[in-house]
Every structure is written in C-alpha cells, then in structure tokens.
Design a protein that fits this description.
Layout (H helix, E strand, L loop, with lengths): L4 E5 L6 H15 L2 E7 L14 H8 L3 H15 L7 E6 L3 H9 L4 E5 L8 H14 L4 E4 L14 E6 L3 H9 L1 H4 L4 E6 L14 H10 L5 E4 L8 H11 L4 E5 L2 E4 L2 E4 L1 H9 L4 E4 L1
Parallel strand pairs: 1-2, 1-4, 2-3, 4-5, 6-7, 6-9, 7-8, 9-12
Antiparallel strand pairs: 5-12, 10-11
C-alpha cells in the first residue's frame, strides 16, 4: 500500500502556509497527486443561533468570501508552482463539512489544520476537523498551529504510534504504514490503562511491533506509566516530545451526542494541544 493522492484543505487563514508546506513535501516524497480543496461556503458558528440578530452580526464582520477564495487559490498555486508531481484543484459544494466528506474520498490521505483556540470561529474549525476524522473514511493528518517545519523533518523521520489494542489503533497503524516505512525511528507507546489490561479483546503492544516487523519496520516499545488520575492524552504528548517525534499516529475515538459524533477525551486532548502533526484514523 502506498499514498497516490493527497488532499489538503485550503483556505485564507494564516495557518494555510504550514498546511501546504507539509502537503507539498509529502506529495513530493510519495510522487502523489496533490489535490487542493476549497469550500465556497462557510459553516456558521453556534452563537449565530443564540441571538436574535446573529446572522446579521455574522455577516457584518465576515470577510468577503470571493476575496478569501481567491487568496486560497493563490496560496495553493504559489506552494505548488515548482511541483514535479501532479496537481489538482477541487471546489467543494455546500458547507466545508460536506465538502471534506464528499471530495475527501478521492484521496488516500487528508490534510487539515488544527483548530485555532484563539479564533472566534474555533468551534466551527473544530467541528470541521472532527467531521473529517470521523466521517470521511480516510486517515486525516492534522497540522498544528505554529512556525513552518524544518525541511529535514520530511518525510517524518521520527514517529510515535499510540497503541491501546483497539480496532481504532490497529486502523491507525495500518493507515500510517507508508509513512512508517520511510521513518528512521518508530516508537510504539502502550496506552492501555491499568483497569483495561485484562480485557481479552485488546491486543497487546507486542502485536503492533510484530505486525510492523512483518512489513519491514523496526519499532521500539515504550511503556506509558499511568497513575489512575493521569490524563492519557497529555501523557502521550509528553512522550512524543521526549522522543523528539516529528509525527504522532493515533486512533480516533468518537462518542455519540444528539445523533452527532464528537471526539472522545484522549483524541480531543491530542487534537487541541499537539504541537506536532498528528495522523488520526477512525
């Protein structure tokens, strides 16, 4: 299995440059087609529906959509100007959450930006990323807010894989294999909490290492020491920092609420606070 098509969500935000930097580097590494995805409409934040004049207030400060679309396309064109791989451009219909589900199935890997907690529309961005992870049927690479990456990190030399023995972690391991094969260091972190270690359906961490070995990937085992009150997500991010990881691989876990899927606790912690790219699979 390899990556032949990568789709990156493109908008007019300040974080798009880092997103495109990762997308272009990965497409070059895999000689994959890079597809830029733009949505012509915008989701509305929840507060719009809480006030009588919400929609009017939203329209009063919302940026001109046409100008934003032009800026997004220009950013994509500049980023791919010297590309030696195939490039495509897609304009999704409907809201961004609809576009990422529909158009995303054209690709093997989706790249989106981490929700900006300081942005007034962060709830919108978070819902968009959640939808991409839980509903697109594709692995999703979330690029964090922050400075542009060093070119030497590609194609992600050091990777930390979170493993708790579930279907989701097995799916994430499988989806990350093309990246893992190119890494120089792979660490499998056992995230199984003490109270769950006797569950017969959970595969032990050695299974992950054995599966990787059969695909030619050597992995080191790292045991997460968890106190009962410890936050698994925060502990996982700390280990990724200690191992100087360029990429974190993590299964995503959803929980139902009012017929919508929301990300569970550990996944939400990693999504919000990761300072390195994270590959989520569901």
């Amino acid at each position: 299995m390899d990556i032949s098509a990568i789709m990156v969500h493109v908008d007019a935000s300040q974080s798009v440059e880092a997103r495109l930097c990762h997308a272009v580097a990965l497409a070059g590494s895999f000689n994959a087609t890079l597809i830029g995805l733009l949505s012509l409409s915008a989701d509305e934040p929840a507060w719009v529906y809480r006030t009588a004049d919400g929609r009017r207030e939203r329209q009063a400060y919302a940026p001109d959509l046409g100008a934003a679309c032009e800026a997004a396309r220009e950013a994509f064109d500049i980023a791919t100007e010297a590309a030696t791989f195939a490039v495509d451009w897609r304009v999704g219909e409907g809201a961004p959450t609809d576009a990422i589900q529909c158009e995303g199935r054209l690709a093997d890997l989706l790249i989106v930006g981490q929700p900006d907690r300081l942005n007034a529309d962060s709830d919108v961005a978070r819902h968009f990323v959640e939808t991409a992870i839980l509903s697109s049927g594709r692995p999703v690479l979330v690029i964090p807010q922050g400075p542009l990456p060093d070119a030497s990190t590609f194609p992600y030399g050091s990777i930390v894989v979170a493993w708790n023995g579930t279907r989701e972690s097995a799916r994430a391991l499988h989806d990350a294999l093309p990246l893992l094969k190119r890494a120089t260091q792979v660490d499998v972190v056992s995230c199984i909490p003490p109270y769950a270690r006797r569950k017969a359906e959970l595969s032990p961490p050695a299974y992950a290492a054995n599966w990787l070995a059969r695909h030619g990937v050597h992995a080191s085992m790292v045991e997460m020491v968890l106190e009962r009150s410890a936050d698994i997500g925060e502990s996982l991010l700390a280990i990724a920092g200690q191992r100087r990881a360029d990429l974190l691989v993590c299964g995503a876990y959803g929980r139902g609420l009012l017929r919508e899927e929301l990300l569970g606790g550990v996944t939400d912690t990693v999504l919000r606070h990761a300072t390195i790219p994270t590959l989520f699979s569901y």
